[in-house]
Automatic annotation (TrEMBL):
Its main location: membrane. Pfam families: Rhomboid. Residues 54-196 form the Peptidase S54 rhomboid domain. The chain crosses the membrane at residues 64-84, 96-117, 123-140, 182-199. It comes from Stenotrophomonas chelatiphaga. This is Membrane protein. It is a multi-pass membrane protein. One of its GO terms (cellular component) is membrane. Keywords: Membrane, Transmembrane, Transmembrane helix. It comes from the Bacteria. SUPFAM superfamilies: Rhomboid-like. One of its GO terms (molecular function) is serine-type endopeptidase activity.
Length: 223
């Protein structure tokens, strides 16, 4: 099954699985990866002791670490389901840029929300990138049918994305599901939406100028 996947989607699955294995206590353990988890903006900045404070690279590296097998499994299931068709549509470079922008954007939103909290937590997981993929799938394939896992209800991708977005907003605002970075999920969707709008030249961005006209090919093909 993996050999049929597009290159970047396959690489994301493999990288996340390998790093999760290395996080286990019988190998390197979580403490080794503390400098790569998204630490809250608090205390003084110390570039020579990155384990307990925020570092810029954490805006990307946190998205490749996970706290449990279930956390990893459901995130990678979403990358498998939604990442492959998006990469096949966009190509490797644009897909990778989009995914990493969503991961970093989710991290920025989480840092902002965490700065307003008394005891912000360390964050890890690919969920910000995953929610960005969900949004992109709903925008590019709005009428494609998808199936919820719990409960197993089929619905259009556009409806699926709207329900997930509203659900995350409610859970984040009410605190009904603590221990989950709901605003990071919303941040991944927000930055994904902004990037797609930018690529399309839609508000709030200026229309992109049309490219140069293609020159006619006057050369005959020789068989």
């Amino acid at each position: 099954m993996l050999p049929r996947l597009p290159t970047v989607t396959k690489a994301l699955l493999i990288a996340n699985a390998i790093l999760f294995l290395l996080q286990q206590p019988f190998l390197l353990g979580d403490a080794t990866f503390a400098p790569f988890m998204l630490q809250p903006l608090q205390g003084s900045f110390d570039a020579f002791s990155p384990g307990g404070n925020f570092q810029p690279w954490q805006l990307l590296t946190y998205g490749f670490l996970h706290g449990s097998f279930g956390h990893l499994f459901f995130n990678m299931l979403a990358v498998f389901m939604f990442g492959a068709p998006l990469e096949q549509t966009w190509g490797e470079k644009r897909f990778l840029i989009y995914y990493l922008v969503c991961v970093a954007g989710a991290g920025l939103c989480q840092l902002l929300v965490g700065s307003l909290m008394e005891n912000p937590a360390t964050v890890l997981g690919a969920s910000g990138g995953v929610f960005g993929l969900l949004l992109a799938y709903g925008m590019l394939f709005p009428n494609q049918r998808v199936m919820l896992l719990f409960p197993p209800i089929p619905m259009k991708a556009r409806t699926f994305v709207i329900l997930f977005g509203v659900g995350e907003l409610v859970l984040g605002a009410t605190g009904w599901q603590p221990g989950v970075a709901h605003f990071a999920h919303l941040g991944g969707m927000l930055f994904g939406w902004l990037l797609i709008r930018y690529w399309r030249g839609q508000p709030p961005f200026k229309p992109r100028p049309p490219g140069p006209p293609k020159r006619p090919n006057h050369l005959r093909s020789i068989k």
